[in-house]
Amino acid sequence: MTSDDEATATTATTGGAALDGPDAWRAMTPLMDLVTPMALRVAVTLRLPDLVDEDGSDIDDLAARTGSDPDALGRLLRHLVGRGVFAEPRPGTFAANGTAVLLRRDHPSAVWRWLDLDGFGGRMDLAFTGLADTVRTGRPAWPAVFGAPFWSYLDANPELSASFDATMAANAGYGELAEGYDWSALTRVADVGGGTGALLAGLLLRHEGLRGVLVDLPGTASRAREYLAGRGLGDRCETVGRSFFDELPGGADAYVLNRVLHDWADTEATAILRRCADAAGPRGRVLILESPIVSGTDPAMFAEMDLRMLVLSGGRERTVDDYRALAAAAGLRVAAVRDITARHTVVECVPAAAGT
Asked: What is the pTM of this model?
């Protein structure tokens, strides 16, 4: 938008003078437009940013390489050209510009993972076509849109499940987390719902005296076993294929729930914490790794993620006080809260009777 448009939009959304006619459309269009977001996702799904080079690529060649209709593909690209993605230096020839390059699969930002309609990122956005039903009922939209609950759907679709694992690992910030908490005080860590093992691998590689156990559903645990063995950690980490609603393996000093509880409503989240508390016993601890709203948290981002969790799985984002309440319901108490990064706060829980 131009500065004039931004000023108009600000007036329209902050209770200023009422707008009508063209000014109202200019103010609302950035909030209304679904054409450009979908066009961008289709372009990424077809891998157009990777196929279109900086010197220009012919539309017929691009159509053949993507299995697309040349006329329809041209219309898609011209729309994106008008929005600053790609260029058309000559009629029927399209070139990559700086924005298009950001969407390539070898770009370090990995933005494409959140847009590819064949992967978890794009599929997650499609779930929002059921948002109206979620708002009316309070239930997640994913089952209505895709025919099965979120976790069941992933379990039945290995390729999408692998995409989910890769998307989560690519945006995890595990390096800062591995250095920002005193893991060296522990001898054995259980990563509950640990995915394919990216966090646990980071911890074990940085702390030589640490051993681990990863718990996740059988298919995911199998992929984790391969991943950890590939990192040379097979002899230091056990993998257990089991739901975290079932009894968990004992013997660990700490049971880690890394961005697990926000996937679930309070009843299920409390049940997961109880399983961890039972396994930890009187001397262990439970570490909740989440992004609760604390000083400096962007409230708009928090609200967006809160809505996403509801639409996908019926989960929610929480405050530190919310986690205190969940811990108490599971027989735990919060002993410490440590802010590591903007993405990771460690809520350290111990048995409620400990230290009292």
From this structure: 0.85
